[in-house]
Design a protein that fits this description.
By secondary structure, the protein is α+β, with helices and mostly antiparallel strands. Helix content is 47%, strand content 11%. The protein has 13 helices and 8 strands. Strands 1, 2, 3, 4, 5, 6, 7 and 8 form an 8-stranded mixed β-sheet that branches. The radius of gyration is 36 Å and the shape is elongated. 33% of the residues are buried.
Length: 502
């Protein structure tokens, strides 16, 4: 049986990039890949399952035929499928069964990790002021609905899947994808199924809001790679997950470089380095320990998710600082409402990610009570578990800190808006007071003029002298002024009468 496995491992079935299923043998570190075609499915059915510990990686969209076969050969549960497919593209008739988040006890064998990817694109927008993104986010939501509709009806096996597209500025956005893991029951050895949303390059899938905007160059839209820096790495030389196959270059930018080629193609490429994880997995693991300890065997997967989450939180911090940089600046009161909406949007994203981190922390904390194969009193496995828990607890605390920064920023912006509105009200009151003073003078004059008209000797239309107009206008104006300052007059009268009584 081992000879059969080793022989098959030496020849990957089909192109790696187009492979859907990859079986990774944890004991010898070898892989068998199966292309996303009917021939690949036939080969997968005919493949003899190894009795040794292994991880089955599934990449991207899966057809019902593939899912049925995997359920029969590797014991994938219906709950595993339900959780992975629980997002708007595959909602059950538009109904929400409200099954997520699940109880911690139900995460003993099935759990999920969120993989955010930061993206940049050129949309010809420049400026430092806050950006009103409400209409842009509405257009993004409509574009995602069109993408989900195409994904349901036209997707091919091993197409990459995007669950959410989060717009944080006109130029910067984040894609959210999921990794679902099911750890099978231990029967002498153990097996796990890891289903990734990432497979073929997104440029080969349906058009989504992450594609380059019309009229822009391909290289102006690019995805940031996830850099996994481990404890033994040099700080000046962080290790990326795409370093195992030097002849296959995955560029972080938009242009794609073929293997052993130096000339970039003109068309856009998304280039997500997690797409190659199944073919590079376990390069830093102790093979013997990984075959006997489940959590240790999944360490590289947890590390990648933690690194992606750390980059996402650093990006959120940058956006929060940008929105709060306008607090206290003159003549930007009109931007406060925009910053309030943006901060509230970021806070909602942090809340969602905090929930996922809490579930992962629960798994790591309860690792001893999980029915997973493990090696007790092994320093390497224990160190890996402790470091993973420390990383995810740090990320969870960071989410809380950034969420509080959002709340405090929103409170500060709201207070600034109130102060700005009070300042405007005071200025308006001053202007109204000036108009009132003017009216106090001109309304009595209008009254006097309406009585006399133009019947004056000097105007040749009457017999009354002009001085009578002036003599009658002065007392009327004085009387109006006293009425206008009635409180002052009344106070002066009370003061005089109180002194006379004394």
């Amino acid at each position: 049986m081992a000879d059969t496995w080793n022989a098959a491992s030496m020849t990957a079935v089909g192109n790696l990039v187009d492979s859907f299923a990859v079986i990774h043998n944890l004991e010898n570190g070898r892989d068998v890949s199966f292309e996303a075609s009917s021939k690949g499915l036939t080969d997968f059915k005919a493949h003899l399952a190894s009795p040794k510990a292994s991880i089955l990686f599934l990449r991207g969209f899966a057809s019902p035929e593939w899912l049925n076969t995997i359920g029969q050969t590797h014991g994938a549960s219906a709950e595993f499928y339900r959780r992975h497919l629980e997002f708007p593209a595959f909602a059950l008739g538009g109904r929400d069964l409200y099954l997520s988040p699940s109880l911690p006890s139900s995460c003993a064998r099935i759990f999920q990790l969120t993989i955010p990817t930061i993206c940049i694109r050129n949309v010809g927008v420049s400026g430092y002021e806050p950006e009103d993104l409400q209409k842009d986010r509405q257009r993004e939501a409509e574009a995602m609905n069109r993408y989900f509709k195409q994904l349901r009806s036209k997707a091919k096996v091993a197409d990459s899947v995007v669950r959410r597209c989060l717009l944080l500025s006109k130029q910067e956005y984040v894609l959210e994808q999921t990794v679902s893991i099911e750890v099978g029951p231990s029967q002498g050895t153990w097996h796990a199924i890891v289903w990734l949303d990432q497979a073929r390059d997104l440029s080969q899938s349906f058009h989504g809001p992450w594609n380059p905007a019309p009229g822009t160059r391909a290289w102006e839209t690019f995805f940031y790679p996830v850099i996994v820096q481990q404890a033994g790495d040099s700080p000046s030389q962080p290790r990326s997950e795409n370093t195992r196959q030097p002849n296959l270059v995955i560029n972080a930018g938009s242009s794609h470089v073929r293997p052993n080629s130096t000339k970039p193609e003109e068309e856009w490429r998304a280039a997500q380095n997690i797409c190659l994880m199944p073919f590079q997995y376990g390069s830093r693991l102790d093979k013997d320990l990984a075959s006997r300890d489940t959590l240790y065997a999944l360490t590289e997967l947890f590390q990648f998710a933690a690194s992606a989450e750390a980059q996402f939180l650093n990006f959120c911090q940058k956006r929060i600082e940008h929105e709060l940089s306008f607090v206290g600046t003159d003549n930007v009161g009109q931007y406060h409402s925009v910053s309030l909406l943006n901060l509230n949007y970021i806070k909602s994203l942090l809340t969602s990610h905090g929930q996922g981190l809490a579930e992962t922390i629960g798994i790591l904390k309860n690792r001893r009570s999980l029915d997973w194969p493990r090696v007790d009193k092994n320093a390497t496995a224990e160190k890996a578990a402790v470091l993973l828990l420390a990383d995810f607890e740090f990320l969870f605390q960071r989410v809380g800190t950034l969420a509080r920064d959002c709340e405090q920023g929103m409170a500060t912006l709201a207070n600034s808006s109130v102060l700005e509105e009070s300042r405007r009200s005071a200025n308006t009151a001053t202007r109204v007071q000036r108009l009132t003073v003017i009216a106090t003078i001109f309304i009595p004059l209008s009254f006097v003029c309406s009585i006399w008209g133009t019947n004056f000797e000097e105007l040749g239309s009457g017999t009354s002298p002009m001085w009578m107009l002036l003599m009658s206008a002065v007392p009327v104006i004085m009387f109006s002024y006293l009425i206008y300052n009635w409180e002052m007059v009344l106070g002066l009268y009370r003061k005089i009468t109180s002194k006379s009584k004394e």
